[in-house]
TrEMBL record:
The protein's Enzyme Commission number: 3.5.4.26, 1.1.1.193
Organism: Lactobacillus amylolyticus DSM 11664
Name by which UniProt lists this protein: Riboflavin biosynthesis protein RibD
One GO MF term: 5-amino-6-(5-phosphoribosylamino)uracil reductase activity
Pathway assigned to this chain's UniProt record: Cofactor biosynthesis; riboflavin biosynthesis; 5-amino-6-(D-ribitylamino)uracil from GTP: step 2/4; Cofactor biosynthesis; riboflavin biosynthesis; 5-amino-6-(D-ribitylamino)uracil from GTP: step 3/4
Amino acid sequence: MQLALQEACKGRHQTWKNPLVGAVIVKDNHVLATGYHHHFGERHAERDAISKLTPEQLFNSTLYVTLEPCNHFGKQPPCSQLIVNKHIKRVVIAQIDPHKLVTGKGIAALKENGIQVATGILANEARKLNEHYTYFYETNQPWITVKQAISLDHKVAVRTNQRTKITNDLVYQKVHSERADYQAIVIGSSTAIIDNPSLLTNVHTDYSPIRIVLDRRGRLLKHLDLKLFTDQKAQTWIFTENKSLSSHPFNNKFVHCFFSKNDSIGAMINELKNQELQSIYVEGGPTLEKSFLDNYLVNELITYIAPDLLGANGVSAVSPSSFHHFSDVKIDKLNNNVRIDERKQNV
Ligand code: AOF
Ligand code: ZN
């Protein structure tokens, strides 16, 4: 199962909404084949491993797989049926699939066909491998991480309306790669206007995270030349409570505007849930972060701290209305900057 977990990791950043899954086929104490889920929509890990062997090799073999085999027709046909057809004798599973279409059904189908099934082997490691996927299907909520970059005196800019480079180049690289672990990146309209960010990632992915701007009042109407609206490098979604902005013709298939009467955050979360997008990286600014915290939507807070003091004119970092406890704190150094990663609960 350890090897199956390693195989699964080979698909990192390529499977988008689908889980990372690895499989290993063993017979007479020999590993005969390994496989993994390569790309979103393509064949599943079990089928990848099975495709490498002959019917004789597969007969009476044992399949180790990090996630319960599926038993439904999605973009791919059911793996359970393939396992039965190939006369595999035993299936060892790490994690039971939390996906509502699959959970328990794959195992039931295997057992009904006389296949021996063992579950729970390295289950925690497998859950960790797909922690956003697991959280999303277990709770019906996306995993939400707030990221902030602050000075030692808890400021995010030297003064209002001025972009300030606070953290070092290593942090810059780290943030650009960290974005690839999420399916959506969210900012407020002030950050969009002041920073004019691209919100792209430096990791090769088949699907870039969707860039989302929350613009309740429709301030973006005066800033339609921002990179997010013109670069055509990834999808950009706007959530607004302003009718003029929501009906503006963008004439650009990368930009979509969603109208909501009130509660742009709620509308955004609902849209992501409808599309089964499982994770959100909130990149500021402090006002938007405060809304997420005050609504108790934050699962994880990542704080990058630079050793400088920005002074009394600086813009303060987020301070929510009430107390928030974070556990499971991890601290790393990136040269002279510090990264603190803390969570409210583990998957
Ligand atoms: C994967 N890769 O290796 C396994 C998956 O739309 P489909 O047909 O690709 O089905 C996706 C679901 O199939 C996925 O959410 C999970 O429940 C199950 N197993 N999916 O993408 C795999 N084994
Ligand atoms: Zn499958």
